[in-house]
Design a protein that fits this description.
The complex is a heterodimer. Chain A is about 80% helix and about 0% strand. The model of chain A has no long low-confidence stretch (mean pLDDT about 90). Chain A starts with a helix and ends with a helix. In chain A, α2 packs parallel to α5 and α6 packs parallel to α10. Chain A has one domain. Chain A is mostly helical. Chain B is an alpha/beta fold. Chain B folds into two domains: about 220 residues, Rossmann fold; about 70 residues, Alpha-Beta Plaits (2-Layer Sandwich), CATH 3.30.70. In chain B, β12 and β13 form a beta hairpin. In chain B, α3 crosses α4. The radius of gyration of chain B is 24 Å and the shape is elongated. The relative contact order of chain B is 0.14. The chains are: A mainly alpha, B alpha/beta. Chains A and B meet through α1, α4 and α10 of A and α1, α2, β6 and α3 of B.
Chain lengths: ~260, ~300
Amino acid sequence: MKINSHRVMAVIVRHMFSWKRSLERIWDMFWWPTFNLFTWGLVTVYLQFAGTGSMFADIFLGGILMWMFVNQSQEEMGLVFLQEVWDRNLLNLMSSPLSILEFTIASIMIGIMKITVSVLWLLFLAYWLFHFTIIQYGIMLVPYAISLLLSGWALGFVINGLILRYGFRVQVFAWSLSLLVQPFSAVFFPLSILPPWMQVVARVIPTSYIFEGMRKVMQQGTIDYQGLWTAFFLNGIYLALGIWFFARSYYQSRSSGMLVKFG
Amino acid sequence: MYSRRMISPILDVQTLTKRFGNVTAVDGISFRVNEGEIVGLLGPNGAGKTTTLSMLIDLIEPTSGTIRIFGLNLKLHREEILKQINFCSAYTRAPWRLTVWEHIFIFARIYEVSDPRRRTDELLDVFHLTSQKKKLIGDLSAGNIARLNLCKAFINEPRFVLMDEPTSSLDPDIADRVREFIMRKTKERKTTILITSHNMAEIEEVCDRVIFMSRGKIIAENTPEELAKKTKKTKVRLMMKDGQKRTIAYCQTHRMKVSATERYVTVEIDEQRIAQFLHDVGEIGADYREISIDKPTLSDYFIGEARDED
């Protein structure tokens, strides 16, 4: 299937035009990350005073920063699609030469742009408020961040597939599905403190390997290659399944007439 | 022969069927639309018009049948076809946070129009939207949104445009301009148009041909005039001076459909029998001050078919 960069760009520009007048998007990019960082940052400062050590604070703040890669990449894929549905503009787009693949690529690019802005903002805030800089851990965290993006996109494909199949009834997943995964991901605590049954589930969730690996990088300065490759392997499987589910759902929504009902 | 403008087929639909579960929305329809034609797709609610239109722009997957546009199979040449056609519907909106200019500019880019900025300005001018171009779409009136939809539909100089009730919610003056624009485009650029509308006068004015659908099937296909003629009865309305009761009795004896209100008598009658009827009214000693004769319209045909369906 051919991908036309002009059409991908057009969708990106359309959302850029919209963003500058959208308080919700600005909230998403700046307010919620700031709120999270500030609240949890103060908790870690308090715990530091209570004698838990500075590494605890670093791990906590690192978790907040890294989780944003999953949350925002997943959320943005859903929101770009839902925005067109809410604006009743989806039929205008889908009856044009724009393909669903081009639209999805544009959603991913918009997500990357949003994450970049949010992460830069949080890096600045974390340094300014708590003298924390994740950059000190260097390039070692980059593959983990990439793997987290893949996790977010896999979830995003599933959410968009669900919306295409079941309509507005399931739009709440656009904001909440990643939160269902979070407790199994061991974002802020080691996997070993989870109850045994949750540890079993966590073994098939790629984000659990990533956050365990992130802590190892921060504490020992080494990469757990086995965990990292497992995460990439699982992400590959989930991403493939997510794309397959989304493609099936798109076909089904065209077959059932659901796509036209979105208006 | 339906139209003098008939040249070559732009759209060729063969045995197109769409089933949603047990419901057959479109039932094996076949029709063609030729270059430069304006064809109306009519029918009561639930006839299958919107489903048909949606299949023609690849929004609904047909259960069976083929759609060929510009001689190409839509299933195999989606991008190539959709680049050259466009669509507008009274039921779609536009992003309310975008300005009028931004929205049209985005579609100019999606359709890869050369010099999209110039084309956007040009088209906004054609649709008298230049003064609104910096306005947010959320602040536009319903009429201006309908004009914006039309503006988007012509951004790529399409060879074929599908319109789903394009002038609903427009005031008569703007609707008239839109009709003028549609007719001018077909003349200037041989743009082919397939249009659905509940405004029968509009269909009669702009369409070369009408396809009438009912319960998923095409039940008639002809020029608006010829379809109207299928409703044979002409309404003759007499303002009676004398002999109203005798006139009503005469109509009932001759099994004519008659109704009376105060001094008026309205009779539904075959056009060729009007002269005989008026002669007979004189013979029975009735007299009338005024007479009006309403020839059957497409609307009469539509109402007749819709009632038959019920």
